[in-house]
Each structure stands twice: as structure tokens, then as C-alpha cells.
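In the laboratory, one determines a bound structure by crystallizing the protein with its ligand and collecting diffraction data. In a computational setting the workflow is compressed into a single prediction: the sequence and the ligand go in, and a structural description comes out. We illustrate the idea with thymidine-5'-phosphate.
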Amino acid sequence: MQTAGLFITFEGIDGAGKSTHIAALAEAFRAQGREVTLTREPGGTPLAEKLRELVLNDPMDPLCEALLMFAARRDHLQQVIEPALARREVVLCDRFTDATFAYQGAGRGFDLAVLGQLERWVQAMPAQDGRLRQPDLTVWFDLPPAVAADRLAGARLPDRFESQPQAFFERVAAGYGDRLRQDPARFVRVPSDQPREAVWRAVRLSFEQRGWLQVEGVR
Ligand code: TMP
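The predicted complex, in C-alpha cell form:
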């Protein structure tokens, strides 16, 4: 089994059902004796959690939104993600930069070239000789926006993103598709309009195939 640090991110439109699978993966890695850091964006540090509150609830323009997402990300990378990877932990991060391209870029229509510039500034890390920190793998829970809307209906009070119309989530989903096409080797796309157990099997299999989790039942 691999013991280098692993940086795994999870993406999908609101309602795609990431959380239970992220928790199950954390348990699977821990069962194999790996240290796991479970974290999220925007958030993951005291400063970034404050920025999360603002960006999810206060009205602002798309540039402000993008800058706050990247400000939160910078703090999170420096305080949590990079130190955990240096300790060779498995970092499971609920959303990362693909969400900015999908939500602020494709969803809000913000300039993708500017987002690319911010990505280069924020993710250049000394531990990588200035190369950009990118996930080792991104799991994209791909759910049709109409199904997600049904799942979200009647849930808790929606935030600034959850309250967007279905057309917004159609653009976000297309934005994730564009990111996958730009870097297919980094992504695994999990069709998520199927029972939770089937989604979990697909997720687990993609980790087993990479040698990151032992095949279930095999010792
Ligand atoms: P969550 O509910 O999955 O924790 O995500 C919070 C919301 O923030 C979700 O609606 C997606 C949005 N978001 C962005 O718009 N851009 C980003 O860069 C990130 C990380 C999240």
C-alpha cells in the first residue's frame, strides 16, 4: 500500500450526496492504519470558516466571491493541507479549485483566465518548488441538476448557492465537465443518480484500482 501523502478532492453540484462517501472513505483509510485529515472548502481553518460564512450568506459581486474563495484556499493550503501532506497523511477535501471554475466561472460567468491566474498565485507551493498544488485525484459526483433540485427541495434554509435556479446548476455541471476534459487523468466521474450503495461501490473501486485501498475481503 502507498504511504505517501494523498490529496483527494470531492466535487459536484449541491445535493450530489458527497458527504456520506467522504466519511466512509475516511473510515476505510483509517481501518488501514492511515492518518486522515478530513476538511472542506471554503473553510478548514478559523479564518477560512469566517470567509465561508460571508461568501455563503452576504450579497457580493462575482469578483469578490472569487477572491474570497481563493483567500480562504490560500490559508487552508498553508495551515492544513500542506502540513498534512508533509506528514504523509490522506487529505480528503470536500471541494477545491474545480468548484471555483464550476460555480464562479461557469455558473456566474466570471472570466476563466482570471481564475486561472488566481489559481497559479494561490496554489504555487514552496514544498513543490513553486509548482502548483493540485489534487492527486478528484472524485466528481455527477448528478443531473433536476434530481439534485428534488433532493434539495424542503431541506434546510438554502444559502446563496443552494437557492440558485436549476439553470445555474446546469452551467455548474457543464463547468465540471470542462474541467474533467482539461485534465482527465486527475478525475474520476461517478454517475450519482443511482442507489447510494452503488455509488459507494464505484467510489471504493476507483481507490482500489489505484492501489490506495486494499481490495475488500483480500488480506
Ligand atoms: P458545500 O455546501 O458543499 O460545503 O459548499 C459550499 C458552497 O460553496 C457550494 O454551494 C459551492 C460553493 N463554492 C463555490 O461557489 N466556489 C468554491 O470555490 C467552493 C469551494 C465552493
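Residues 14, 40-42, 69, 94-95, 99-100, 103-104, 161 surround thymidine-5'-phosphate (CB under 6 Å). Keep in mind that any predicted model is a hypothesis to be tested, not a measurement.
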